[in-house]
């Protein structure tokens, strides 16, 4: 296989309003996940592990924490003289300044960046998802079909098709129709928002889309359907691994709980495909002899005297003697005080759960979002 030069463009400006307090002060890709990571770490690590040397990260909504986390890309080996990582934010031009109007517009506004790198292929990624993927497998499928664009897709339960852009294909996996969140889908192949384009073709259609004053400047709604109408060679490549769009508080909680399932295919302990992140300089965790810790992830800096079962604890969390944390996600710098009980919850960063307080129900079905000001059932 002739690899060809690839530039990855990672869309990381999402607001993620359905995550509520989790995205109150930061962009969705910067939301903490899995005890020590942030959501964007998965796409960045996939790109690094796939050998992609050039990547642009397009940020927009409340980018300070996200930009600080990414830095110059050193955690993912992107602080290099040739190639590397660039953060691309909305900027002033001769027409003034504005936010990106849509996913396609975000790439259009940064065409000069891509032109300067002069790639053969452009890979469009989202910073919102939890998964591990070798993007070179997608490239190989793209080249084998001599495609103009190849979409990564996955099979979803039929009842979930109303939440996704659905792709209908022929027997050769050639795309014949798009359905945007259909009430009654014809297939259950859902777009992952991951696209491998030939750069000259993408460039042509970004310009066409920008000239259409009625366009939403979105890949799924506008650019891809336009290419289909023009009979471009459009194919799908089906992804078989773990993938999660953590779009709600409940799905965020579920994705963290998935990490505690020994049969989960998202293996964070795979040394051949590591998930990299910017780490904090914290002391080792301390598990007191009076504690009980079962099937949990306990990050650095934690001090545990109480009971922790089937939970994910981020750095610098304290669980005092007699306290119980079960089926919960506890973000950094939180304190669960003596004899407090926390069940089925997402505890925000820096929260103090006072002594004797009980949050949630051990065998309940609801998930609770916990801040210092309130507890909200989801």
TrEMBL record:
CDD domains: ADP_Glucose_PP (cd02508), LbH_G1P_AT_C (cd04651). Pathway: Glycan biosynthesis; glycogen biosynthesis. One of its GO terms (biological process) is glycogen biosynthetic process. GO terms for molecular function: ATP binding; glucose-1-phosphate adenylyltransferase activity. The record marks 60, 99 as: Could play a key role in the communication between the regulatory and the substrate sites. Its EC number is 2.7.7.27. Residues 8-260 form the Nucleotidyl transferase domain. It catalyses: alpha-D-glucose 1-phosphate + ATP + H(+) = ADP-alpha-D-glucose + diphosphate. Keywords: ATP-binding, Carbohydrate metabolism, Glycogen biosynthesis, Glycogen metabolism, Nucleotide-binding, Nucleotidyltransferase, Transferase. Alpha-D-glucose 1-phosphate binds at residues 100, 165, 180-181, 191. Residues 289-375 form the Glucose-1-phosphate adenylyltransferase/Bifunctional protein GlmU-like C-terminal hexapeptide domain. Pfam families: Hexapep_GlmU, NTP_transferase. Belongs to the bacterial/plant glucose-1-phosphate adenylyltransferase family. NCBIfam families: glgC (TIGR02091), glgD (TIGR02092), PRK05293.1 (NF003670). Homotetramer. This is Glucose-1-phosphate adenylyltransferase. It comes from Soehngenia longivitae. The lineage of its organism: Bacteria, Bacillati, Bacillota, Tissierellia, Tissierellales.
